[in-house]
Write a structure and sequence with these properties.
Distance between the termini: 87 Å
Strand order of the largest sheet: 1-2-3
Strand content: 5-15%
Number of helices: 6
Region (Disordered): 1-20
């Protein structure tokens, strides 16, 4: 009995998927016809879930109807009948694909989640493109805001930075001319791969380490927590020591240490 039920469930799921794919294909076919200026809008076979709304209070237009959502696309508001139909068809397609839309009854949460996932996918895709270029030995120009850059104070370091919600910002230097990264391209590749790991996993090996040292032996060894001027000076000194460790000239601002 259990095997029969599971088989029936699998068959029903398969039929549902096939039906869904046919509906999406019908919508895509109508979209292509609508984009073709030589095709009369009135001759386009409307897919299920889409119909004219000539009696709407805002004038003629189209209605895209889905489970839990119904949206009106007026001809006047969308610069003409063809553009309004195209917008309605694209809305219908998004719903069939499970993305929803900003006007859904769930407050647009499904659409927002899809947008987040899509933005994340595009960020990873962009990083992958740069990784392939570097692996092929080609020079690349990284845009601002990508999360990998060369600090102004150093000519031998690539720095990766990433900030995930609810976590402190992670900054990691990759200095070339070292055993791990003999060339600038080696260091840049490592920085890009680290950024990709953050985008996919939300963290890397270094920032995944517990950051809270309170009530631990490490906290006791660290001594008293400093605040105000002393705390800022200690932070500046620690930052300078980190730069020295990488074989670079450290910034001394805030350390109260002056070169001779």
């Amino acid at each position: 009995m259990l095997a029969a039920l599971r088989q029936a469930e699998q068959t029903a799921q398969q039929r549902h998927e096939e039906h869904l794919q046919r509906e999406i294909a019908d919508v895509e076919r109508a979209i292509e016809q609508t984009k073709n200026e030589s095709v009369d809008v009135n001759s386009i076979a409307l897919p299920r879930g889409l119909h004219r709304a000539n009696t709407h209070q805002d004038g003629s237009g189209w209605v895209a109807q889905h489970a839990g959502c119904q949206r009106y696309f007026g001809n006047d508001l969308n610069d003409g009948e063809r553009r309004a139909l195209l917008a309605a068809l694209k809305c219908r397609k998004r719903h069939l694909q499970g993305h929803g839309c900003p006007k859904c009854n769930d407050g647009g949460r499904g659409w927002e989640e899809f947008q987040k996932q899509e933005n994340q996918r595009l960020k990873v895709k962009r990083i992958d493109r740069f990784i392939k270029e570097v692996e092929a030995g080609r020079e690349v120009t990284l845009p601002n805001g990508i999360g990998v850059h060369r600090p102004t104070y150093s000519k031998t370091t690539w720095r990766m930075s990433h900030k995930a919600p609810g976590r402190p910002q992670c900054r990691i230097p990759f200095t070339y001319g070292t055993v791990d990264y003999p060339t600038s391209m080696d260091a840049l590749l490592a920085a890009l791969q680290c950024k990709r790991q953050h985008l996919v996993d939300g963290q890397c090996v270094e920032c995944a380490q517990p950051a809270d040292m309170h009530d631990t032996e490490e906290a006791e060894e660290a001594g008293p927590q400093l605040t105000g001027r002393d705390g800022r000076q200690l932070a500046a000194i620690n930052a300078a020591l980190g730069v020295i460790k990488n074989g670079e000239v450290p910034p001394l601002k805030g350390t109260e240490i002056f070169p001779f």
